[in-house]
Amino acid sequence: MVRVVVDVMPKPEILDPQGKAVAGALARLGVEGVASVRQGKRFEIEVEVAEGASVDERTAEVERMAATLLANPVIEDYRVSVLADAAGRTHGTDGTDGTDA
Amino acid sequence: MVRVVVDVMPKPEILDPQGKAVAGALARLGVEGVASVRQGKRFEIEVEVAEGASVDERTAEVERMAATLLANPVIEDYRVSVLADAAGRTHGTDGTDGTDA
Prior knowledge:
The first copy, chain A, is an alpha+beta fold. The first copy, chain A, is 28% helix and 33% strand. Chain A has a 4-stranded antiparallel sheet. At the A-B interface, strand 1, helix 1, strand 2 and helix 2 of A face strand 1, helix 1, strand 2 and helix 2 of B.
């Protein structure tokens, strides 16, 4: 079993009403020095790694899930990373198309 | 300016209907070997670091924001980490109470 994390964030150029609402709330609570807040989703997916299959293969499958189901590539960027698998290795692929500030 | 990330996830013992819905959708799409899916929120907060203030002080402030506004400590765990600040250092504090599986 390996736990793969998919972080999905709105693209920088996309308006983020949720993030703006949080930033407004922080200001009303007297928190200073917050320039911006962006809010996205985080998925932690536990996937089985069958005999003979590799963590990288399963990570690539999660990458496809992220691109097709978990994120809307038109308005969102996603980032796939493996929390340390059984062998303690971490892996990561980056689904941004280079527009991430 | 430093970008601090706050990841907020439902506590392991709490029912996660959103995660279950995603797991069901993956199964219907024919994706196999997904044991579980948990869905949470990810905040990316840009905070100014005034002259004489330290990144750690600002991170501690974001930690307080996380505990009071961004997460509901009764049903959620949170994790605060700094995306590499200007000096390339990363920091991290962990708002879990040790029950994270």
